[in-house]
Amino acid sequence: MQSSPGGGVVRKWSPVGRRTLLVCSFILAAALGQMNFTGDQVLRILAKNEKQLSLLRDLEGLKPQKVDFWRGPARPSLPVDMRVPFSELKDIKAYLESHGLAYNIMIKDIQVLLDEEREAMAKSRRLERSTSSFSYSSYHTLEEIYTWIDNFVTEHSDIVSKLQIGHSFENRSILVLKFSTGGSRRPAIWIDSGIHSREWITHATGIWIARKIVSEYGKDRIVTDVLNAMDVFLEIVSNPDGFAYTHSMNRLWRKNKSSRPGTFCIGVDLNRNWKSGFGGNGSNNNPCSETYHGPSPQSEPEVAAVVDFIMSHGNVKALISIHSYSQMLMYPYGHSLEPVSNQEELYHLAKDAVQALYEVHGIEYIYGSISTTLYVASGITVDWAYDSGIKYSFSFELRDTGRYGFLLPAVQIIPTAQETWMAVRTIMEHTLHHPY
Amino acid sequence: MQLRRQPLSAPRPGDTRPAAQRLAVPLLLLLALQGAAASGEPEDSGWLQDAEPSSRLLSQAARAALHFFNFRAASPSALQVLANVLDGRAWVNQKKEYKFDLVFTTEFYRAEEGEKRLGTCSAQVFFRNDKPRPAVNVTCTQLIKKERRQEEDYQLYKLMKQLKSPLNAVRIPDSHGYIAPSLRPIWNLAFLGSSYVMWQKTTPFLHYFMSQISSVKQWKTNDDAIDFDYTVLLHEFSTQEIIPCRIHLVWYPGKPLKVKYHCQERQTPEEGSGTEEGSAVALTELSNF
């Protein structure tokens, strides 16, 4: 189900497409004052064999209708979800029990759930008018982030502007924030987050960093010096289609949502689609794989947009790509074990950045080249950036080291952003003082 | 071929060795194997030591040892996670068998914010080829006294017995990483069961983390034991794949954990390497029920 910026529906509970659709229709019906579901339950039944399945089908055939299947009897291994009106509960449960049909109560009271869901949707529609009420310690939907971007740009229009650099496969805008105090095509620092949509901590960190940059300009010597000489570009949602999908259907989705005729699986790993060592080890040519590199380098619009932007800008001096998880700060190469020519410099810069990060909350990061620290990976952003002449190319893997992984609790957003910022600031400072 | 004990630097941040020297085990050892004949250690003939094992490789082996440890301890209130590898040695032989000797620190999985109690473990981990289910010999210092651990397990058990069926809470944690306090015991128990599965599936090249409980099929507490049937999403790191596994466990405080599982894979499952070989590891408890 597509959602576009500015519209769309926020789902509070867990995505099961068909169930959500049914709930929506219930809400509609309830809203029209036609139906009340108080006390109705949804039972989940696991039929052990065909005999039990046919018993369930008998229920389906009853007239007048006593139950309503949300997930009908299909095969013995598949669960059957059945809505039972309050008035029929006792009889139906007795029927199931007498025939030895094991069931669980999936939803204890549908009306309660509908009321909660309606409340959540109403809340989401009250669009935030300013960034001061935006919660930096929560995770947000795509719509909320895009709204925040507009508000943020309005509030800080002296330094920040919004650029659209392209469209995603499902035609969503790809947005970049530009921080600039003037000049023309100044040397620039590029930061991206969210290339892998399930890494929610990265978008949240990007947003926090945006706010930090504007609040520190004029106060922090390094930020002020950097912005007086350079521009910063920040792409917070590098994979908007994938990100929308993590909200609507699959929280652990990684790739984009591109599809091709004749291909059974959807999505390309956007961090394997770049033109550096493309198709090598650590990427996969199977479209069903999580590290599918796509049919050709830059075949994906989300990657092409960034490539086009950076190449036509022509003056990007540092690139920072933010991922999670593992707690690592790394530099090229990913596709090969061969060290890059300024390996010593990058090693020491990473060391300093990690030290600055550590001093905030005592979190330990390891650092090194991608291939030796994380794994061999081909066609990645920072390899391409480095080979395109961007000497200071870094990749972050934020918190944690596996306890929560991609599902990092929201309470860790601000501490993570605070420490990450100090590392980013270190890299910015070095880039400023080492022009090339 | 030099055989050298390579102590790791004290816990991070970072790594004092220039990255160029820290080559992945397979590459370095393949080069060594292609070269001169094996020098032959007195007790393990054919084993070639990796002079510079990567911290990633050692961490993976340490985690495998911890999965096994957690499973055997069968104590959801005393689950431990890897903190730092203090010392590690890695060997491979021409039969492509991998051996690790590790010392590492651990933390409580259930640590409250700020509670940083570290334990220490030493382990030997052995993989036959790149087969999963390594043979593990692991000893850990006692993070909490046995009596206290048993008491906390029993408290957890009582909590779980009182829990209304948690089937309404389909995903744990939710998308925002939140676990309701009342559901914490379920998460811990699920992690215990997943530890068994992750140990079974770990190879020198594949290692797993538990991402989310995606559904609770059944939660029964009649009889005495907790009978828990759930689906968990495992994250395999090197391929980045998400593997759904259906796990059915039976737990009673103080008793060994009984687990059955089935994972949805794209590849065919492999035979384990931990059923025979070297270490003093008793076979796991696999029971039909």
How would you summarize this macromolecular structure in one to three sentences?
The complex is a heterodimer of chains A (436) and B (289). Helix content of chain A is 38%, strand content 16%. Chain B is an alpha+beta fold.
Structure write-up:
The complex is a heterodimer of chains A (436) and B (289). Chain A has 436 residues and is of the alpha/beta class. Chain A has 2 domains: 41-108, Alpha-Beta Plaits; 138-434, Zn peptidases (Aminopeptidase, 3-Layer(aba) Sandwich), CATH 3.40.630.10. Helices cover 38% and strands 16% of the residues of chain A. Chain A is built from 13 helices and 12 strands. Chain A has helices spanning 17-31, 50-60, 89-98, 110-125, 142-155, 200-216, 221-229, 240-248, 301-313, 343-361, 370-373, 381-387, 413-433; strands spanning 41-45, 68-71, 80-84, 103-107, 160-167, 173-179, 188-193, 231-235, 316-324, 328-331, 366-369, 392-398. In chain A, the strands form 2 sheets. An 8-stranded mixed sheet of chain A has the order 5-6-8-7-9-12-10-11, with helices on both faces. A 4-stranded antiparallel sheet of chain A has the order 2-3-1-4, with helices on both faces. In chain A, strand 10 (328-331), helix 10 and strand 11 form a beta-alpha-beta unit. In chain A, helix 10 packs antiparallel against helix 13 (413-433). The two termini of chain A are 47 Å apart. In chain A, 48% of the residues are buried. Residues 1-15 of chain A have low confidence and may be disordered. Chain B is of the alpha+beta class and 289 residues long. In chain B, 22% of the residues lie in helices and 29% in strands. In chain B, the strands form 2 sheets. A 5-stranded antiparallel sheet of chain B has the order 1-2-3-4-5. In chain B, strands 6-7-8-9 form a 4-stranded antiparallel sheet. In chain B, strand 6 (208-220) and strand 7 (226-236) form a beta hairpin. The longest helix of chain B has 19 residues, at 55-73. The radius of gyration of chain B is 20 Å and the shape is globular. The model of chain B is unreliable at 1-43 and 267-289 (pLDDT under 50). At the A-B interface, strand 4, helix 10, strand 11 and helix 11 of A face helix 2, strand 2 and strand 6 of B. Chain B: It comes from Ovis ammon polii. Chain B: Residues 1-38 form the signal peptide. Chain B: GO terms for molecular function: metalloendopeptidase inhibitor activity.
